[in-house]
Every structure is written in C-alpha cells, then in structure tokens.
Design brief:
Blueprint: H1 13-16, H2 21-26, H3 35-56, H4 61-68, H5 75-96, E1 103-111, E2 120-129, E3 131-138, H6 152-165, E4 171-180, E5 185-192, H7 193-215
Parallel strand pairs: 3-4
Antiparallel strand pairs: 1-2, 2-3, 4-5
C-alpha cells in the first residue's frame, strides 16, 4: 500500500472537484487516521498479498503473519479478502475467454497529471485483455454503498490506467468495478475509451483547470 498521496488524488476527488481550494488547505495536515481507515488499510494489504500469491507466486507467509498480528485483524476480514481474490480470479477467467494471455497488474501506480496537476493514484487491480481494461477498486467500508456509475474517482483511475497502458495495448473500453464485500456490493460502469478521454478533456482539463488557475500558484 502506498504511503504517499497526491494533493489532487482520485480518492479525494469528491471533495476537490466541488471545492478545489480544499485540496491545498488540507495538504500537509497530519492525518492521524481513524480506526475505520486503519482497518481498511489492513484489509487492502491482505487483499494485495492474496493476489500476489495467486498471480505472482509470491511467498506471503511472513507478511501474512505480521498482518494477522494486527489488533484490527479478524477472521471475517480474511474471509472477505479471500472473496475479493476469488472475484478477481473470476474476472481473470472471463478475460481468458477473450484472449490467450490476459495481464494482471496489482497495486499499479497511475498518473494523469497531463489533465490535473500533480495528480496520481494507485489502482488496486487491473486486468487487461483484448480491447478491454478492467479497473477493480476494493472498498472495505460498510457505511455507505458506493456506486461506480458517474463516479469521478473511478473515472480518474480508469483514465490513469488507460494512459499507463494504451501506448502498448489497444484498449477500446474501460470497465470500472467497485467491489465492496461487507455490503455485498459489486457496482460496475463501462465507458468507451473515447468517452473517457472526452470526459477528461472537456471536464478535467477545461473545467478543473479554470478553477485551479485561481488557487494553484
């Protein structure tokens, strides 16, 4: 899990897209982190380990023992993350029906600073097969069901992933999935590459940069 966050990152887009100056005001303020946030970070870490074991054949024994020693760890957390790994495996099996050698990227750093200055993020899981880029975002929270349709965070992840990979692969569509196991929520939205790039050009570059020019000095 990354320990560095962008000033204008996808995870906080719901705030700075509405109130852009808030990003500068919040930047540099220490984040003590709530118990819920720490729990989510631990769950993501376990999910990452399970994916790396399955798809990169990594020995995760020591790292998993360390995670299980965390007071926030629970058997249900492990079960939810195993379900997440199973879901990714299902998507990989689906991708294999489209091409012989689908690619998987775990905890992939992505950038889209050509549209938003200093912007980057980390995508939990990407699956690339002929023409289709799957962007999967794990959310461990159980307070609010998060939807993928029209979600700016997911669109930014999709954009960054497209920019990172489209130079080497032909990508026609981006499927963005929010996997929220504790609410049994799997929310999906799909855009063509053209639709996503049009949104980035006409909204992020045009609208957002007009706002930033007043506060980003």
């Amino acid at each position: 899990m990354p320990d560095k966050h962008a000033i204008l990152g996808p995870s906080s887009a719901h705030r700075w897209l509405i109130c852009t100056p808030s990003a500068r005001l919040e930047y540099g303020i220490p984040d003590s982190g709530s118990t819920y946030a720490k729990e989510g970070t631990l769950a993501h870490h376990i999910g990452e380990l399970l994916l790396r074991k399955r798809w990169q054949d990594e020995d995760i024994t020591a790292a998993m023992e360390q995670a299980q020693a965390d007071p926030l760890y629970s058997g249900s957390m492990k079960e939810h993350m195993e379900d997440y790994a199973d879901f990714v495996e299902e998507r990989m099996a689906e991708a294999a029906t489209r091409c012989a050698d689908p690619r998987i990227f775990i905890e992939q750093t992505i950038r889209f600073d050509e549209y938003v200055p200093e912007a980057f993020g980390t995508a939990d899981c990407l699956i690339l097969s002929d023409g289709l880029l799957d962007v999967i975002d794990l959310k461990y929270g159980k307070g609010v069901s998060v939807q993928a349709e029209g979600n700016p965070q997911m669109r930014m992840y999709g954009l960054g992933c497209y920019l990172a990979l489209s130079w080497a692969y032909e990508i026609d569509a981006i499927r963005m999935t929010i996997y929220q196991p504790r609410l049994d929520n799997v929310s999906v939205a799909t855009m063509t590459a053209k639709e996503l790039l049009d949104w980035a050009e006409n909204y992020l570059r045009s609208c957002i940069h007009k706002r930033l020019s007043k506060v980003w000095k």
